[in-house]
# Entry
Amino acid sequence: MTTETEITLTPVSLDEIKHLISERAIQGETVLLNMGPQHPSTHGVLRLLLELDGEEVVNCIPDVGFLHTGIEKNMEAKTYEKAAVMTDRLDYLNNLGNNLAYCMAIEKLADLDVPPRAQAIRVILTELQRISSHLVWLGTHALDMAAMSVFLYCFREREIILDIFEMCSGQRMMTTFFRPGGLWRDVPADFEAAVRKFIKLFPERVNEYERLLTKNPLFLRRTKGIGVLKPETALQYGVTGPMLRASGIAHDLRKAQPYSGYDQYDFDIPTFTDGDTYARYLVRVEEMRQSLRIVEQALNKLPLGPVRSNNRKYVPPPRSEIGVSMEALIHHFKLWTEGFTPPKGSVYVGVESPRGELGVYLESDGGPKPYRVHWRTPSFTNMQILPIIAKGHLVADLVVLIGTVDIVLGDVDR
Amino acid sequence: MGVEQKLGNMGVVTVKLEELVNWSRTNAMWPMLFGLACCAIEMMATQASNYDLSRFGMELMRASPRQSDLMIVAGRVTRKMAPVLRRLYDQMPDPKWVISMGDCASCGGVFNNYAIVQGVDEVVPVDVYVAGCPPRPEALIHGIVTLYEKVKGERIKDWA
# Structure
C-alpha cells in the first residue's frame, strides 16, 4: 500500500480551537503555546496546547494520535496466532503484559487450559516486566527533574531484566513469549539462577534509588503537593493503576479479580492518600519491591510439567510428535496454514499493567481471524486527568506531571 | 598514540582539510533528542550505562533541531507525524545526516496499513538503515559507526 504522503502542516485558526480555550486567550490576555510533539519531556510524541498566564498553566489541551499505528485494525487482518506479534508493540514498556491480556482473552473465548508451570512463568515474567517498566519511568521521571544519575542506575538494572527476557525468548523487548494455551517454549535451564541473582541484587538497588530521591529536598519541592488528584475525580475519569492507588483507593486487578494464579501469592498493594506526585512516586517504588516478592514466591513454587496446553486444536504439537504421528502432522499443518478457529462470541479480559487496567475486548465470528479487537489502554484513560491536575501549576511542573502520569504514547494512540 | 606522534620538530601537523573536518565531525556529532516509539527506548538504553553512547562522542543529545546534526528516526512514523518530522529535518542546519532506526522507520515493519508511512525515506533522505524490531543497542552503535565511515568519505565538493 503506497500513497503519496502529504508533508505539509496545515495551520489552525483561532476559530477552530475556540471551544477549547478560555475567553481571555481570544482577547489576547493569555498566551497560547505549543508543546511537542517533539519535546524531550513529553515521553514520546504527545502534543500539548498550553494556555499560559505568565508561567501559570490556565488550560492544557492534549493532542494525541501522532503515533496512531492502526494496531487494532491490523490485528483483524491476521490470524489469532500471528496477531499476538502486534500486541507487543502497543505498550512497548509492558510487552509481556500485553501478550498476557491477549492470550487470556483467547483462552477465555476458547476455554483453553493453561498448565500451572506456564502460569507461574507468566507471573514471574510479567512482574519482572512491571519492575523494568517502573525503572524506565523512574529514570525518565528523575531525568525530567535533572537527576541524571538515577536514569543511569535504573537502566543498569533494567538491562539485567532484559537479559532474562532475551535468555527466554531471544529478544530483548518484543518477545511474544506468551502464546494462547501457554508459552512459546519452556524457559532455559539457567533461568532460575538468573532470576535468583536478580532477586538478591535488586532490593539494595531500590534502596539506592530511594537514598537519592526520597528525602532529597530538591525532589521533594518538585513533587510534594504538585498535581493533587482527589480520589473521587480519579474514579470519575476511570483512572487506574498507581495513579489511583496514590489517591487512596486500593484497587488492583491482581487482588480484585485474580488471574493467572495471582491468588496463590502473598503481596501488598501499596496505597497512599496524598494523591500528589510524591505519593505516586512512593507507590511505584513500593510496587517494585512487591513485584519482587511475587517473583520470589512464584520461583520457589515453580511446578514442573508442560508449558503448553494439550489441546491440539489450538496449540501446535511438539516437534518430536510430528515425525511419528499423522494426526500431529495434520494439526500442525492446519494450525500454521489456516490458524485455529475459536467459537463465536465476545470476551473482555483485564490485567493489571504497570500503568493500570489493560483490557482487551475480543470479538470472534467463528473464523480464524478476530472480527474485532479493542484495547482498553490505561495510558489513554489516565491521560485525561492531565489537564485537570495541571491547572494552576507552572510550566516547569507540567513537565513533572507528564512524567507522573506515566504515559506510553504507543499505549495512548495504538 | 595521539597527536604528539604526528608533531614534527616544528610542532606542525599537515593534514588534508577534508580529512580534518570529517574527523572532527565524526567525533562530535550531536544527535537530536527525538524518539517516536519502541526504538526510542532502545535508543535510551544505548545512551545509558551499559552501552554508553558517549564513547562515540554522542552523549550530548540536543532537544532542539537547530543544534543537532544527526536525526535518529527511532520508531514508526505515522502519517500525522510525517509533516512534523519533515519540519524538524528542515530546521536542522547543514551538514545533517539521518539514521533510520528499526524496521518500522526503514520499511514500515510489521505495520503495512493506513496509518504508517512505509519507510521514512519517503519523507527525508536516509543515510543509514538499522534493521531490527527494535534493533539492539549494539546494532544502533554499528549503524552510527557505519555513518562515521560514510562521513569520513565525504569530499569537499560535496559539502553544502
Remarks:
- Chain B touches chain A at residues 33-38, 40-42, 44-45, 48-50, 63, 65, 75-76, 78-84, 86-88, 110-118, 122-123, 133-134, 136 (CB under 8 Å).
- Helices of chain B lie at 3-6, 17-27, 38-47, 82-91, 102-107, 137-152.
- The radius of gyration of chain B is 17 Å.
